[in-house]
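Team,

Forwarding the record for the chain on the shared tracking sheet. I've put the sequence and predicted structure together so nobody has to dig through attachments.
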Amino acid sequence: MSFLPPHDLPELAHFEHPLASRYASKAMVRLLSPLYRMRVWRRLWVALAECQMEMGLPVSRGQIDEMKATQDEVDMATISTYEFQLRHDVMAAIHAWGDQAPKARPIIHLGATSCFVTDNGDLLIAQEALQLLRKRLLDVIAGLAEFADQWKDQPTLGFTHFQPAQPTTVGKRATLWIQDLLIDLNDINHVIATTPIRGIKGTTGTQASFVELFGGDGKQVEKLEQRFCDKVGLPPIHVSGQTATRKLEDRIGQVLCGVSASASKFACDLRLLQHLKEIEEPFEKKQIGSSAMPYKRNPMRSERINSLSRFVLGLMPSSYQTTATQWMERTLDDSAHRRLTISQGLLAVDAILVLYKNVATGLVVYPQVIQSRLMQELPFMAAEVLLMEAVKRGGDRQDLHEKFRLAALSAGKAIKEAGSANNLMAILAKDPAWQMSEDELNATLDPMRFTGRSSDQVVEFLCGPVATALQGHFSSNDAEVRV
């Protein structure tokens, strides 16, 4: 007997992409939907026709009006039927619109090649998507900044190699997460500000078809392209083949990977901190951590950030391969790949940042656990302070150094083998060379004495580059964690 359902059930014929149905925000899903893409194409065609009419080409106001009146009445089923017949997505879209706007049908796509809508459209949608990600990135920075300020004076054990190192503060550690995001913010700002569109370039990028439309007058073609780009709101790339260079998408991918890496670093840190029971991600009242172990509070949001980030980071090598293997003015081996990588990368990073904000604004801190772990290790870290104090009282620095080393080894052995508390101060107090009682020795163990300028660094960082980045930004609540 098979446990599997029959394969011929009609409800099994549909596949839902988890990025769209489970993880990403509705706002990002709408931007990358086939319907939105088609509406962007139609607006590009309208803008082209308007510019052509304004410059005296045979396009009438009535045709423009008909296009505008029907530009949002996209019939995806009709387009799909045409594409099945024609095996060409752009021509399918033109024919479907021509059925709705018969007067405009003769001039839709006049002089253009398919990449006029595919490349220009994808770059425009990517710009909108990056603007959305920028807003989400600022939301995360704002959340972490509030957290850093709240906990700037809370001493905590610092780790290098995940081994106890010198103390820092909880807020100072959070500034490391913020700093990575500020670098990502600068990168995303740069890509938004410097990414052009393909413009009006024709079949192989020579604009020959438009030169024909203007009777050989290349200057008129230049004016046409500038007029079109002014309407669209982005400058044209200087030169292209049939496609705009695929390096434009590589730049977008680099930004997506940068954000993913920063988010993943945060999520890894938080998973370690949750294991230590020092800081936890939010856990809802009815949330279940495990189907078998009801006591568990798994860091599922952080783990999902790591998982989605790993997916995004895996997209870039194949994106570079696409750029590296384009032939001459174009090949079509980029098309299917671009449909997958750009959309999935944007959806995944959107989901990552929605999760990141949720975690960053709901972190739960346990100061007593933090203090207990720090005090267990702090006596070892007090070596230099104790050496200086003992020398002031007449001791020999070199002899005291050896005594401290031996005492520390003894205390460390007791901790590891017997599970004892750190008794280093008690061991040192028994040695008259230190000339200090156990109370005097313990009095040196003020955690803030060992955190350096951590608190001041947090204040300076938040009041400086973070405040500059957040100037004019207002956090929004337009997206929730969907699962």
